[in-house]
């Protein structure tokens, strides 16, 4: 599966964000070569209505003939806001909706409440799970799994109060590597680049990258975007499946075994 991760270095209004990401993808289009999935960062659609947000994702999906994991926006749930994202197919069909169950920091200042959590979705025959930023660190997110995913997608806005992004990047790397082994899945994260302002103008940490469930060398457990704004990964999902089969044979399987993550 060919996955495109994004890490935009510019953040403005939602319209500006989508314009910038489109320009970014167009610039790198020769590298994309028929992507299966394009992943956007959290709250890229901040300020858009659900109709405007969905339309922006449908346009991207049609333009690149790819599934879009659309970051998120705030949906009005009457008594509070919900940090919600959509997965859109190349033909414009909405395949899944995912929500943030654990609003973090500045989101609560905007009136965000608890959402229903991540979503399982099958993309081109590959079992995927999509979750939003802070939920990735909550064990409950994975304890509720009733089926294993080949890829865990995370749409993030990794704000940090530290003077540099180093601590946040280290924590995300360790968490991604651990989750990849635990869930026998690739973990793919899109984020905003450092030092793009996010919640309450705190900077994002630029943690986009991919962790591998069964790397052959320690140095290959994770690949990060660093200062890059886009990266293309060809994911061999058989690696995670073979690792799961091996774990299961040894009584060590965790992924998809409800209540044992």
Protein model, in words:
The protein starts with a strand and ends in a 12-residue tail after the last helix. Helices cover 27% and strands 25% of the residues. The mean pLDDT is 93. With 261 residues, the chain is an alpha/beta fold. The protein has helices spanning 14-27, 29-32, 50-64, 106-109, 139-143, 166-182, 238-249; strands at 2-6, 37-40, 67-70, 73-76, 81-88, 94-99, 119-123, 126-132, 151-155, 186-190, 209-211, 222-224, 230-234. The chain is built from 7 helices and 13 strands. The strands form 2 sheets. Strands 1, 2, 3, 4, 5, 6 and 13 form a 7-stranded mixed beta sheet that branches. It has a 6-stranded mixed beta sheet with strand order 7-8-9-10-11-12. It is globular and about 50 Å long.
List the helices and strands in order: EHHEHEEEEHEEHEHEEEEH
Query: Low-confidence spans: pLDDT under 50, at least 5 residues?
Result: none
Number of strands: 13
Percent helix, as a range, is 25-40%
User: So how many helices?
Assistant: 7
Overall outline: globular
- Proportion of β residues? 15-25%
The quaternary organization reads as single chain
Global Rg: 17 Å
The whole-number mean of residue pLDDT values reads 93
Q: Would you tell me the structural class of the helices and strands?
A: alpha/beta
Q: What is the makeup of the main sheet?
A: 7 strands, mixed
Distance between the termini: 26 Å
């Amino acid at each position: 599966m060919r996955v495109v991760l994004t890490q935009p270095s510019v953040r403005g209004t939602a319209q500006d964000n989508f314009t910038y990401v489109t320009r970014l993808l167009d610039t790198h289009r020769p590298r994309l070569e028929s992507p299966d999935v394009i992943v956007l960062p959290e709250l890229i659609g901040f300020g858009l209505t659900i109709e405007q947000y969905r339309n922006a994702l449908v346009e991207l999906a049609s333009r690149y003939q790819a599934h879009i994991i659309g970051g998120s926006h705030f949906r009005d749930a009457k008594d509070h806001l919900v940090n919600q994202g959509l997965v859109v197919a190349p033909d414009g069909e909405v395949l899944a909706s995912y929500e943030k169950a654990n609003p973090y920091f500045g989101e609560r200042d905007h009136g965000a409440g608890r959402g229903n959590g991540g979503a399982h979705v099958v993309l081109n025959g590959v079992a995927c799970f999509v979750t939003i930023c802070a939920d990735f660190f909550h064990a409950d997110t994975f304890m509720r799994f009733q089926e294993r995913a080949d890829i865990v997608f995370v749409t993030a806005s990794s704000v940090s109060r530290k003077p540099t992004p180093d601590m946040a990047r280290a924590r995300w790397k360790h968490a991604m590597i651990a989750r990849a082994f635990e869930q026998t899945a690739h973990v793919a994260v899109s984020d905003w680049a450092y030092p793009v302002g996010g919640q309450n103008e705190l900077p994002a940490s630029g943690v986009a990258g991919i962790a591998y469930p069964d790397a052959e060398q320690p140095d290959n457990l994770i690949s990060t975007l660093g200062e890059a704004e886009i990266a293309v990964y060809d994911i061999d999902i058989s690696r995670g499946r073979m690792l799961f089969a091996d774990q299961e044979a040894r009584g060590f399987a965790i992924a998809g075994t409800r209540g044992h993550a």
